[in-house]
Amino acid sequence: MERWSEADANAWWAARPWICGVNFLPSSAVNFLEMWRAETFDRVTIERELGWAAEIGYNAIRVNPHFLVWKHDRGGLLDRLDWLIGVADAHGIATIPCLFDDCGFGGAEPVWGPQSEPVPGVHNSRAVASPGREAVMDRTQWPDFQDYVRGVVRAFRADARIPFWDVYNEPGNRMQFGPGGYSRFEGDLEPHAQALMEAAFRWMREENPEQPLTVGAWSTPVPRDVDHVNPYQTAIDRSALLHSDIVTFHAYWRASRVARFIDYLSVLDRPMLCTEWMARAVDSRIEDQLHMFHDRGVGCIQWGLVRGRSQTHLPWPSALVEAHGGHPDRSIWFHDVLHEDGRPYAPHEIDTVRSLTRRAHDPGQEGMRT
Questions:
Q1: Which residues lie below 8 Å from residue 84, measured CB to CB, with a gap of 6+?
Q2: What are the Cα distances from residue 215, in Å, to 51, 84, 166, 284, 362?
Q3: Residue ranges in the chain modelled with pLDDT below 70
Q4: Hey, how many other C-beta atoms are within 10 angstroms of the C-beta on 290?
Q5: Per-residue pLDDT tens for 199-234?
Q6: What phi and psi values does residue 270 have, to the nearest 5 degrees?
Q7: At the fourth CATH level, which superfamily is domain 19-361?
Q8: pTM of the model
Q9: Residues near 144 by Cβ (< 8 Å), separated by ≥ 6?
Q10: Which residues pair with 300 in a beta bridge?
Q11: SS3 annotation, the chain
């Protein structure tokens, strides 16, 4: 199976409603390992929170299965993923699985078993990568990674409830957020991550999925360079864009800068989605940016739904927030839109989502993407 043509990709996009969703981790899970392990897979919370997402108007979730769950309980992982996809579909929500992930924000390598409690006051303090940064650099484990990729894709390759596959979240990301602040993973991660990403594209295409494949470009310039340096220029990002059927990208920036990124990527002439955005402290806000995504026909999947054990309502470390031109004000939620009881953090944000997703689904309303 070859990369989709531009015409095929755009025809796929034209047949779908505008995608507006969230990166979903239930509030009861400290990380994706805790979410997917049998002992802590919280069906009650997942069903309740997906119901809230549907009531707001979100129509997609992006979720990260974890390789270690496959390694220790592959049948259970497939059953739980199928159940979640089914619950989401019953609420009118599509599910986008993301198979690999280098964002080990908590700084520790993933370990099978019960997960530690969150570190008080620290954003995403127990986030672990999948399969783990050290594992990515160990080529002897790659046959197991291939088995994982092929097994999951084979199980859902013709499932209409999955609009597309996200192959790998932020390959080569070495950022770590911990009690001591911002640091970087030590190790030659990037070349191994790029090679694994390219291998995963090949493994997945050999399974002949009916859905398109993508990896989001994620490296953006800092504010002092943003008007002079093009985004997504790392070797990994260039490879991701070259291999992807549809264009996806991450952008935790204010709307005017994200508009520049969209302009830059539009030359590829493929459907475009921002699969990570929305961080209030850096002016990535629903009230202005969601309108821009909608009006430009760019799908969008924000970070976070319900405030919970991941503590992503707290800001990144101060230095990183300031590097993005923001202010690490802890009185303002960084991510997430709902309290644990379902109350909106900011009702006007919910009103904006409802208004735009209603217009996107109603052919009689002005502004529907075509």
A1: 46, 63, 95
A2: 28, 22, 6, 21, 30
A3: 178-180, 223-228, 360-370
A4: 22
A5: 999 999 999 999 999 999 999 977 666 566 789 999
A6: -130, 160
A7: Glycosidases (3.20.20.80)
A8: 0.95
A9: 67, 71
A10: 20, 274
A11: CCCCCHHHHHHHHHCCCCCEEEECCCCCCCCHHHHHCHHHCCHHHHHHHHHHHHHHCCCEEEECCCHHHHHHHHHHHHHHHHHHHHHHHHCCCEEEEEEEECCCCCCCCCCCCCCCCCCCCCCCCCCCCECCHHHHCCHHHHHHHHHHHHHHHHHHCCCCCCCCEEEEECCCCCEEEECCEEEECCCCHHHHHHHHHHHHHHHHHHCCCCCCEECCECCCCCHHHCCCCCCCCCHHHHHHHHHCCCEEEECCCCHHHHHHHHHHHHHHCCCEEEEECCEHHHCECHHHHHHHHHHCCCEEEEECCECCCCCCCCCCCHHHHHHCCCCCCCCCCCCCCECCCCCECCHHHHHHHHHHHHHHHCCCCCCCCC
pLDDT of residue 230: 86
**Contact present, 215 and 275 (Cβ < 8 Å):** no
How far apart CA 47 and CA 29 sit, in angstroms, is: 14
Contact between 270 and 10 (Cβ < 8 Å):
yes
Amino acid letter, 222: V
How far apart are alpha carbons 316 and 268 in whole angstroms?
32
CA 212 to centroid of chain Cα atoms: 16
Exposure on the CB side of residue 66, measured as CA atoms within 13 A: 26
